[in-house]
Amino acid sequence: MLVVDRHGGLVRINEAARLLLPDAASGDWLHERVPPWLSDAHRRICDGLSDAGSGPPTGRIRDRFLEAHPTTGDDGDVVWWLVDETDRRFAETALLDVRARSEILAEVSGALLSTLNAGRCMEMAASMATEHLAEAAVLVAPPQGRRHPLTFARRGGPVTQTVRQVDVSAVPGLAEALQGFPPVPARWIDPADLPDWVVPEGFTSPVGSVIVTPLPGHGVPAGALILLRSGTERAFSESEEVFARLFAARAGAALSAARLYTEQAAITTTLMRELLPPALHHVHGVEYAGGYRASKDHERVGGDFYDVHPSADPSGETLVVLGDVAGKGLDAAVLTGKIRNTLHALLPLAEDHRRILNLLNGALLSSHHTRFATLVLVSVLNRDGRTRLRLTSAGHLPPLLARADGTVEEVATRGTLVGALPTVEARTVETVLAPGETCLLYTDGIVEARGGPLGDDFLGTERLKRALAECAGMQAEAVVERIQMLAAQWIREGRHDDMAVVAITAPRASSHAGDEESGRNGWRNT
Amino acid sequence: MRQATATDTVVERLWRAAVEGDEPAAASVVHEALDAGVPEETLLLDVLARVQARVGVEWAADRITVAQEHAVTAINERIVASLAHRRTGGGTAPFRGRVTVSCVDGEWHAFPARLVAEVLSLHGWRVDYLGAQTPTPHLVAHLHQSNPDAVLLSGSIPTHLPAAHAAITACQAVGVPVLAGGRAFGPDGRYARTLCADRWAPDARGALAVLDGGVARPNASAGRQAVDDLPHLADQEYTMVVRSRHRLVKQTLADLEDRFPPMRAYDDLQRERTAEDIAHIVDFLATSLYVDDPELFTTFLVWTADVLGVRGVPARFLVASLDVLAEQLRDFPRTMRAIERGAAALGAHAVRTGSGSGSGS
What we know:
The structure holds two protein chains of two kinds.
Chain A: E1 2-4, E2 10-13, H1 15-20, H2 30-33, H3 36-46, E3 58-61, E4 64-72, E5 78-84, H4 86-113, H5 118-132, E6 136-140, E7 148-154, E8 160-164, H6 174-178, E9 207-214, E10 224-230, H7 238-273, E11 287-293, E12 304-309, E13 318-325, H8 329-345, H9 353-366, E14 373-383, E15 386-394, E16 400-402, E17 408-410, E18 428-433, E19 438-442, H10 444-447, E20 450-451, E21 457-458, H11 460-469, H12 476-491, E22 499-505
Antiparallel strand pairs in A: 1-2, 1-5, 3-4, 4-5, 6-7, 6-10, 7-8, 9-10, 11-22, 12-13, 13-14, 14-15, 15-18, 16-17, 16-19, 19-22, 20-21
Helix pairs in contact in A: 4-5, 4-7, 5-7
Chain B: H1 2-19, H2 23-35, H3 40-60, H4 66-87, E1 97-103, H5 111-122, E2 125-131, H6 136-146, E3 150-154, H7 161-173, E4 178-181, H8 190-194, E5 199-200, H9 204-213, H10 226-229, H11 237-243, H12 245-259, H13 268-291, H14 294-310, H15 316-328, H16 333-353
Parallel strand pairs in B: 1-2, 1-3, 3-4, 4-5
């Protein structure tokens, strides 16, 4: 407690206050003995300026943090009650620190979990470590062979990534961290022992303190994080080491999720490659184009399939296959893969469609799959400017022919489906495509597409034929695009089955002089 | 100037060959120009792009069929592929970075995106071109695998803007910035801003300039939802119109029989075309509610009035359709404002073009 007169002179000072201000005595000027926050507050009160609403003045005297409550006496003297708030203040600061750290951790998790790309994830983890924890950070990923992917970050600098063979045992605690052992306390690591490769480019000042902490993954270590501070900064405190561990736990979880996703995606891509519909090219003077849309938009494969098997020499027949396995999704797609492989093996027998179908039938009946399939085979021969087709349907929708005069014909081939009965009955039909004419193969997903402007109509064969009637003279790609677009606009966001279309088109004669064999056959639409 | 006239000639020759469906002739026009020293970028942006743009104009004027439209597009696509094929191995520009070029989910007009992809490759960008009709989950999966510097998202038809918004938000949520482009985003890119795309470019050269300047990564941790960008969606009017789309089309079709006498003589095919026209009106109305800009709706209506006009459908059809829609949507103030603005725009357009009498063939 201090008593101060209206001119700023100290009148009285009690025992407790004397501990705080040992040099002060009655008669001294207040402003010569206490910091300005208190003497200024006193002057404001004596000048009659109210501080109402802003709370009592607060500030430091020596190492204590105080709140000053004034009481004005009748004689104009002010009694200042000084309340020690140091401990509360300390607790509040600690609380703020904790809150700030949990906010940082939430932000870190949010940012890291947003990406499933391991490279990007490491880049962000290193960059955020320099933002919140250290001046520089090095993220060492588990080795690929003998080389480690390394991510270097420096506060305010760019993040760089390399894959390098480095001596991890040269960094104290790093080899252990990479194996998932608990981190070595920072104070045990002598910064002078660090090998040069750990220090990011542009980090010029000598390293003062180091943290090496494992990145715990899901069951397996996801790497280790090295944090660096220069000698001019204060060393890592124990609470900062704890925080670094929390940070590393989040980074490790995000990183192993990203790695897992990357591995799974690579496996899927490899397995899927064989099941994806092939890109079709123009072969031996005939145009082929195909389009595929799986029943679920996030899938790429389903129960529909098509293939074009060119003959080895231009005078031979090219075999086109389009089919539909009962069911959809991955299970159906796996069966389409088997059928496509079987048909590929049966190519030498393509002369006889019925024989192929019966051999395929036998293979399907003897396999453990209980599904059946419908398909259509078309052998295409282009000779002397005439494109001859032999078509055989095995329980499949009839192929359509878009004639040059704008009419559309159904090909009258029919047969039984494959994989259900002991033998397949099928009738082969022959026809010729004039230049500009197209033969369209399609699956029931197209004609059974539900939607339209009123929302619940089938697309139907009639609409398909009407659209195809406008396609005389168009290239195979354009026909396929037209039909796919028609179906897509018909169903909009509605549910649909797998949809596949293949167009076989006899090219139109060109007015372009000097053109041979439908131009430069090398242009492939891939 | 000489260069300009030269490209004009190439454009004209290419157009004639392509609209005839004569691919070899069309291809040789372009390859001859390339051999004669016309730079590939000029061929892509000042020849092929102009021919493609003409497709839309000629279709609107009813001078070419839908089939011809597809034929020209297919020929243009194959010519671009052949140019790229010729180029392989001859990569001269230094590597700039990696980007993904994709169309909005549901967008079939892939050619503008294709041109952007080719021009960026010419300038040293490694481009993953995902093509037309890319489902947003595929796009996002691709981003996780390739971690590109940016996504270039192309949209031509404004009704895909809600899907574009979903794609933009999804890309940004994985920390990849989005550069939007294409007619759908408005002539000044206003809808790119509405949908919070990171950047917008008017054309391929503009996109190149934006990428060269660098595009900052968005803050991935700030998980955003559509309504955060577009608070007006909270009034549910967009949702209601989209959800009742089929009912609106059916009801409008039924009520039009009384208001629009020519319809009584329509056959099934004409009736279906009319239903499609009404569905388009509802779709554009919904989209204008989504971006909260009635002008998107009025622009569509005026354009449609012209398209229907040259096909002998009287302008009265659109006005009558709006009247019927307005009766069903009376409870939605934002929707009503858009419809009123649309009717006013059609009235003004009729006065301007003198088609107000509704005379059609």
